[in-house]
């Protein structure tokens, strides 16, 4: 009888890293995205309350 080969699990468990593939698009720091989101929330609250 031939021995069965045991296949070990992949080291990344199916996760793929695409950080080197991105060449286009808008590049922004994460801090700017958070600041923009907070400002947008305040504008929405002001509009909802009738402040602007």
Structural description of this entry:
The chain has 52 residues and is mostly helical. It has a domain of 26 residues. Helix content is 38%, strand content 0%. It is built from one helix and no strands. The radius of gyration is 24 Å and the shape is elongated.
Span of the ends, CA to CA = 81 Å
Report the structural category.
Answer: mainly alpha
Radius of gyration: 24 Å
Q: Characterize the biggest β-sheet.
A: none
- What oligomerization state is this entry in? single chain
Low-confidence stretches: none
- Residue share in helices? 25-40%
Shape: elongated
What do the pLDDT scores average to?
78
Helix count equals: 1
Count of individual beta strands = 0
Strand content: under 5%
Order of secondary-structure elements: H
Secondary structure topology:
Layout: H1 30-49
Q: How would you briefly describe this protein structure?
A:
With 52 residues, the chain is mainly alpha-helical.
Index terms:
mainly alpha; 52 residues; 1 helix; single chain
């Amino acid at each position: 009888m031939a021995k069965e080969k045991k296949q070990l699990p992949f080291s990344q468990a199916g996760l793929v890293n695409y950080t080197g593939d991105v060449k286009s698009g808008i590049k922004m720091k994460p801090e700017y995205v958070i600041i923009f989101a907070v400002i947008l929330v305040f504008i929405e609250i002001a509009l909802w309350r009738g402040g602007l």
